[in-house]
């Protein structure tokens, strides 16, 4: 069977499974729509949390970024993993014990303020829409390549699928769909990694292959990769080029941004108890580690395969995968010197000796442009794996993107229906009315997400990194102070959130959209890039909140007592 036939078969079967689960798990009440009725088993919640958290950025883009950036790309790996540990150990059990449906619910009640609730709702919507744009873009990329439609059509197909199971089942449908999606995406990520690891290094375990020698040589894979990279004018794969402060800022922004992501936090409300929240956090960490410890190996395998395949190769003799990806527009070849060969190298290198060598070779500039988002998807084809593996990877990528998109859309619909309409605008709304409102909001959010998927402001992982920065500057300080500083009052928390998110969004917009020509280290504040500015936004949030708190009325005694209780393990509020 051809690649396309396998893709139709595997993707079709996986979609049929998701829709069947959504139909069987359709929500009948607001509690089922918002938190799946609160009765999900920890191991199921762990798998759903892992699928919710491991997005298209994790499945498609993270390995691509590490593959192109080498050691510097590790900031995404460290930041996202560290952030989940921070969330699981520091925040999740306490948030579950507080016993609310959503993060804005926690912020509104903890800070006894409708203004705080509305600010939190706006932050949740901004963060979620920013994040979901990356997911829908990922869906479009996968469909465009494997179903041979343009990216916009791919986004519309993904939108339709998400619309069905998010609107029909709410959190209940999404939870059990995500369990299935976790199984699909992990199988799809591990199978090609194992195949390629055996082919390149002889190790069946990719993590061992990453540190092993190339087959039939005594040269390690990383040394081979360093050599291939420097020969083409790139930095050595195992060396970083970013300033240390910027690396630290990006890692921190990703960490605290993860801990403040509302679609991950809300998953801890779906288990029946605080103990269940802790248990599911442990399961999720185990499931996440399976992919995250494999990703660096996949990145190295993909980079080595790519450089060996395209370096000075004849364009006319390139395999079919090259032409297929060209058709999507995500791979571009321009024969600048007319020799019919592919010269892929760093023509912006500052090494005069290398550039002189390139001139002597007759090279007229880099001729190959590769979108980083295609690395994982193209890797099985580059390695000439069986067609069914290629179709499986397509299904895994779609599962990763759709599972996170659904979780984010539910946050948006819940923020609108529960936090804005029910808690602020119309407290007497009926159960059925609120459920209809939530479904309407989910449907509307799906179509807005589709628009952002068609017009994303960057490639997938960059867009997602911005969402993390915004979450870091707004939610994380408010949640942390809400749990561990009983005297933090509403005036301080609201001021901090507003200033933090405005500063971070303004900084990102200035360098990414208004003046991209100035987006270089010499123009950045303290040498920190837009991807890392959420760390500064978070610090500003803390400083503003602490300052305002000292000049405004003290937190009511009843709220301080409630905050003390949620930190005591033996006092249950389940």
TrEMBL record:
What main location does UniProt list?
Answer: membrane
What is its subcellular localisation? Membrane
Q: Which residue ranges traverse the bilayer?
A: 6-23, 50-69, 75-95, 116-134, 154-171, 183-205, 247-269, 281-302, 388-416, 437-454, 460-480, 492-511, 523-544
* GO MF term list: transmembrane transporter activity
| Topology class, membrane | Multi-pass membrane protein
Q: Which segments of the protein form a coiled coil according to its record? A: none
Keywords of the record, alphabetical order, are: Cell membrane, Membrane, Transmembrane, Transmembrane helix, Transport
How is this protein annotated for GO cellular component?
plasma membrane
Q: What domain of life?
A: Bacteria
The record's section on InterPro entries has:
Na/Glc_symporter_sf (IPR038377), Na/solute_symporter (IPR001734), Na/solute_symporter_CS (IPR018212), Na/solute_symporter_VC_2705 (IPR019899), Sodium:Solute_Symporter (IPR050277)
Alphabetical GO biological process terms: carboxylic acid transport
Q: Which NCBIfam families match?
A: Na_symport_lg
Q: What family is this protein classified in?
A: Belongs to the sodium:solute symporter (SSF) (TC 2.A.21) family.
Name listed for the protein in its UniProt record: Cation acetate symporter
> What is the originating organism of this protein?
Synoicihabitans lomoniglobus
């Amino acid at each position: 069977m051809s690649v396309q036939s396998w893709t139709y078969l595997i993707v079709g079967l996986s979609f049929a499974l998701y829709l069947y689960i959504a139909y069987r798990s359709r929500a009948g009440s607001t509690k089922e729509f918002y938190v799946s009725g609160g009765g999900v088993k920890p191991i199921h919640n762990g798998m759903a949390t892992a699928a919710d958290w491991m997005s298209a950025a994790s499945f498609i883009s993270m390995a691509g970024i590490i593959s192109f950036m080498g050691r510097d790309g590790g900031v995404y790996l460290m930041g996202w993993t560290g952030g989940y540990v921070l969330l699981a150990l520091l925040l999740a059990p306490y948030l579950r014990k507080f016993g609310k449906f959503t993060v804005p619910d926690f912020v509104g009640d903890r800070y006894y303020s409708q203004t705080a609730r509305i600010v939190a709702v706006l932050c949740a919507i901004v963060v979620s829409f920013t994040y979901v744009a990356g997911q829908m873009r990922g869906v479009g990329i996968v469909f465009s390549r494997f179903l041979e439609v343009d990216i916009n059509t791919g986004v519309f197909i993904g939108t339709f699928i998400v619309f069905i199971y998010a609107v029909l089942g709410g959190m209940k449908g999404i939870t059990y769909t995500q369990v299935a999606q976790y199984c699909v995406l992990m199988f799809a990520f591990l199978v090609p990694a194992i195949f390629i690891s055996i082919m390149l290094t002889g190790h069946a375990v990719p993590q061992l292959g990453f540190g092993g020698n190339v087959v039939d040589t005594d040269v390690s894979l990383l040394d081979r990769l360093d050599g291939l990279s420097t020969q083409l004018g790139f930095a050595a794969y195992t060396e970083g080029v970013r300033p240390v402060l910027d690396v630290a800022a990006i890692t921190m922004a990703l960490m605290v941004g993860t801990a403040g992501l509302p679609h991950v936090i809300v998953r801890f409300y779906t288990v029946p108890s605080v103990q269940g929240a802790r248990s599911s956090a442990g399961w999720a960490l185990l499931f996440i580690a399976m992919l995250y410890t494999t990703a660096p190996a996949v990145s190295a395998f993909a980079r080595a395969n790519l450089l060996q395949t395209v370096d000075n190769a004849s364009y006319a003799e390139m395999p079919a995968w090259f032409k297929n990806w060209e058709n999507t527009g995500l791979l571009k070849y321009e024969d600048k010197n007319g020799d019919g060969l592919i010269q892929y190298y760093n023509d912006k290198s500052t090494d005069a000796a290398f550039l002189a060598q390139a001139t002597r070779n007759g090279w007229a500039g880099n001729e190959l442009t590769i979108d980083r988002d295609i690395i994982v998807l193209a890797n099985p084809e580059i390695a000439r794996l069986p067609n069914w593996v290629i179709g499986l990877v397509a299904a895994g990528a779609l599962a990763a993107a759709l599972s996170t998109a659904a979780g984010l859309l539910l946050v948006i619909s819940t923020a609108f229906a529960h936090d804005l309409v029910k808690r602020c605008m119309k407290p007497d709304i009926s159960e059925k009315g609120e459920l209809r409102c939530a479904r309407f909001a989910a449907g509307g959010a799906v179509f807005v997400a589709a628009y952002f998927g068609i017009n994303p402001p960057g490639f997938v992982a960059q867009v997602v990194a911005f969402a993390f920065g915004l979450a870091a500057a707004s939610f994380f300080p408010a949640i942390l102070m809400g749990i561990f500083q009983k005297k933090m009052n509403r005036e301080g928390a609201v001021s901090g959130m507003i200033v933090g998110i405005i500063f971070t969004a303004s900084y990102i917009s200035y360098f990414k959209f208004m003046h991209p020509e100035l987006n270089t280290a010499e123009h950045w504040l303290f040498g920190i890039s837009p991807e890392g500015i959420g760390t500064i936004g978070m610090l500003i949030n803390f400083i503003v909140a602490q300052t305002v708190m000292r000049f405004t009325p003290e937190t009511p005694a009843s709220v301080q007592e409630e905050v003390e209780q949620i930190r005591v393990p033996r006092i249950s509020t389940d």
